[in-house]
Amino acid sequence: MRKGLYEVIEKRKSVRKYDMNPLDSVLLQQIKQFGEEVSPLIPDIRVKFNVYSYEEVKSLMAIKAPHYVGIYSEKKDNFLLNAGYMLQQLDLYLSANNLGSCWLGMAKPSVALPEAVDGLDFVIMLAFGNPKEEVHRSSKAEFKRKTLEEIREGSGYEEALEAARLAPSARNTQTWYFICKEKEILVCRRHTGFVNEHLMARLNTIDAGIAMCHLELALENRALERNITFEEIAVPKGFIHLATVKL
Length: 247
What we know:
Number of helices: 7
Low-confidence stretches: none
CATH superfamily of the largest domain: NADH Oxidase
Mean pLDDT: 93
CATH architecture of the largest domain: 3-Layer(aba) Sandwich
Number of domains: 2
Radius of gyration: 17 Å
Number of strands: 10
Strand content: 15-25%
Shape: globular
């Protein structure tokens, strides 16, 4: 199911220019099918992916693409983490299949983009389609990311945290932070300090879910058994604990 996703992490990029011709219907159906089979971070949260055409939502989008996919979710504890975790798998799947994609953190529901579907609330969306620019990075040097030392306390788990380090984030804020202990990784995020703290807190929690997707894929690639818990744990001032990965 998730085969090939880890390998694309080091070359995935946000694509902002697209061929506006719609994708082949068979390929589009394969993408929708993958969305229906994406692994959740939290299994008991109901989610749904809805795919839209440019014509359906064009008045709302800063990036012009032939297709968009929105994730809708129950509003349960950690639903934002779960949404980021799940939609990032689709993002990586698109990249693995040489299709462009880009997170659209500022997309808002309207008449064209419903606020709720089947009792689930809109969370966030991706643009996607055939790219009109390079779909992949030529090297890791093209990433503008914080160093591993800036996002980690403690030591160990370099391969997994390197994958998390390369995750995309709103405004490239990279607020995730990992506290490494013996046989566990505490997943946290920093307080942003932005004026619009509520919006950025929402986006940065989704970002942490994206980073957790990369972290999990790296651990899975090494066949490491792990268990994720969400019980609150005290962390240093300025950080918010989100989850614990027990190894």
